[in-house]
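#random but structural
TW: two for the price of one
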Amino acid sequence: MSATSPTNPASPVGASAPSDVAEAAPAPATATRFSLVPLLALSLSVFALCSAEYALIGLLLDVSHDLHVSVASAGQLLSAYALAVTIGGPIVTALTARVAPKTLTLVLLAVFGVANVLGALAPSFDMLIAARTLAALTHSTFAAACILLAVRLAPPDRSASAIAWVAGGLGMATVLGGPLGTVIGEQWGWRATFWVVACCAVLGVVAITFLVPSHLGGGQKLALRTELSTVTRKQVLWALAITAVSQTGWFLLYSYITPLLRDVTGFSAGAAATMLFVFGLGGFLGNAVGGKLADRSLRSTLALMLSILAVALLALGFVADQRILAPVAVLVIGFASGALVPPLQAWALGAAGGGSTLVLAANTSAFNLGNAAGSWSGSQFLDAGISVRTLTWIGAAVVVVSLIGALIALRARNRATEAADPA
């Protein structure tokens, strides 16, 4: 397919015209209409797989008691997963680059399901860590393959909207994965959470098999060396960097938003948990809006949403003690962070020439790297005596840095494009 052929590095996604996504996105192999059914199947499958990353957040104490390890050791189930996603994801993607996207998603879902069955049956903590790591290795590649399928399902001028559907599944997983996993685990034991996730993987296999068209093009035809050289393109590196830095900025606060809402705003535990769903609602709406706006102008969408995110973080620091305004700020932060996902993925995909699952996997890893960096740096600031309220302003400063970087990178891209094609 033409989508797998190298394109001019100076012409990735990023111009302000509606064609800036269309130029880089691969043309759909068979689809001429924007069918929502296969996109919904992909979105729900991504939701099921990515929920596993957060499903044990509220069950670490149960795991520690059952497997006779400390809570701190049980926390490795989260950090090991994130590390495997960040490091192992691009490696798995490179090794499977020649597999057709639909086939790849089915194989990865099957492996993911088996990994969760092993987790449910794990007799020891080491076996549980191994099962979680195996599941995590499917994460980035699966998300990247789903995004590539979504782009191929959509008309060229609707690429970012198609990406938004897959990103919506990821956003819902971020917000609902933890609460749902906790509810299931508290009712039937933490092993039941693994069984439910495994069943969801089976449903995902069925949905993709029957609802996603098979003739959407084959796997990548580029040599591994060419794929790796694509990742090192200047615009791709810029996109990965902006993804990681912007994600670090808001996740620095999000990791500790419950203590902020309880200790500063004065919400009860139940009300603070409700605010997480408010954040998730904002992210869900943001995904849809961000995709539509990015179809029209990717650069303007990135600039607008990064600006809104920085202002909302800054404002939350000032209104954190007000029970009416604080939830509004939380909603806006969720909206802006969700709206950033489609344009950030579209930028990376376009900068790669339109069809690199390796770049998409690397960008997914960049999101996870930002999560880890935000959570870790937030803990360091708190340990140093900085108040949780101050994290909002630090996060805003980090987002401003990403905004400046995005404007510089996309301006350089535009200049390169104009020099290559004055028309």
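TW: number two ↓
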Amino acid sequence: MEEQKNDTTPKVTGIGGIFFFTENPKETREWYSQNLGLETNDYGSSFESRNLHNPEEINTLQWSPFKKGSEYFSPSTKEFMINYRVQNIEGLVKNLKENGVTVLDDIATYEYGKFVHILDPEGNKLELWEQIDADPNDEKTAE
């Protein structure tokens, strides 16, 4: 297992989020909370899981309804967008460009990760996300 833990091959490692259009995001979040038990906030709901190859690592999948017509999915005209969790985002973007994939923006870095957007052959906008690892010297532990 240690070999996989140190693997830096540019690739998708999982799903980081599911985003979709709705006429009324607030009502949609409330419906899912009331009927399916999702704990929701203004951004949707987060699901946590552990990394099979590194059980100390907690991964998050973000579920978020967006107001229909939001420009966040542009230039795609689809009703959804999937966020893929990746490793080695810089290497992956380099490979994608070499393969002629449409890369929509530069890699943006935030405290919770690095992001870039691409289009697949069907015009679906995909969000690629590389989580920034927590500082190993941080005293916080997962509950």
